[in-house]
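Its record is set out here:
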Amino acid sequence: MHAPSPPARSIAAYEAVTDHDRLERLATLAETLADARVLHVNSAAHGGGVAELLRSIVPVCNDLGVDTDWRVMDADESFFEVTKSLHNGLQGEGAPLTEEMKATYRTVTERNAAAIDEAYDLVVLHDPQPLGMVPTLAGTMPEATVIWRCHLDPTAPAREHLEFVADYTELVDHAIFSRTVYETAIPVPSSSVVHPSIDPLAAKNRDLDEETVAIESDRLEPISFDAPLVTQVSRFDPWKDQFGTLEAYRRLTDRVPDVQLALVGSMADDDPEGRAIHDEVAAAAADDPDVHVLTDRSDTAVNVLQRRSDVVVQKSLREGFGLVVSEALWKRTPVVGSNVGGIPLQIEDGRNGYVVAPDDVAGVTRRVERLLRDDAHRTDLGQYGRASVRDRFLLPLQLVDCLEVFAEIVTQTA
């Protein structure tokens, strides 16, 4: 286990983007949790949505006075092959779990759990990777409350993977899901719902001055910001369906001849499929100079792309929540997204973007074309998008929801 070094964050810095009442509520909750120690555990320090959330949540909690640590698992590729199968299986389709894979999972999770040498009151395990720590933690920290934070969409899990994971989820004290519909998909003793959120002060989301935008735009050549640009930002993953987005773009080129497409993603530390999917997408797009497949760009570069794109697409087949939607909306860019996971919670159809069925390539093409052809409509949707994210999907609100769950648990166990 190792401890990442998240950037400094002060709750006072969020005063410009959230209501005063919300900040006061956070201060009250922090008082309730003043004597509690909290540990978050996940499997990657960079490259995934969970890591992004923790890089903001952990320092802000400490600034509020809630003693909060973050540890990342030490594991090799053989372990991540297992957890990728679990991830995919819980979302409906994963590689079969062999006895050797199960043994690898148990060995690595038990070893990492044994490496935690401090006592905590609340231990939050994020996604399937650290879930196998539960039995060991029950012995080393019997007084701790163990919470499983599920960021996936488990509504149609493969039976084999569900049964394996259920052996552990039934042992946790509480679970937190991203949508109400997820609560009944996996057996847990009790659960809550907390919507994820974006950090408006992070490099990927903060407002940028004109000079920074100009410099980063130049670095993104050969993309031209003088021609229509459609962008999808997501990990290179089968569930993100970059191939479907590419097909929608190809249909669009007959109607908007100068349109460009940017497919942008990072390589998560715990995702062994990412490089292979990236290479397949790049090969499929290689014959079109107006398709730009980009990876491992800086957060500021992604910020500029989302900000300067005319339309953002999120054509996921499955999605735990899909915060890239809120990222784009926060920058006043309308989004065309699939009607899966948390995407329809963020997109109000016809108000800040459009939702389509996950297999509706033609629908994506039609909606994107309409937005590209109607500047006023696109601007109106973008303005409402900014306001909708401010009200519902910024970090202070998620913190209120999380700390309310923690405070209730601490009060009940006192």
Summary: The radius of gyration is 21 Å. Residues 11-197+394-413 form a domain with the Rossmann fold fold (CATH 3.40.50.2000). The chain has a mean pLDDT of 94.
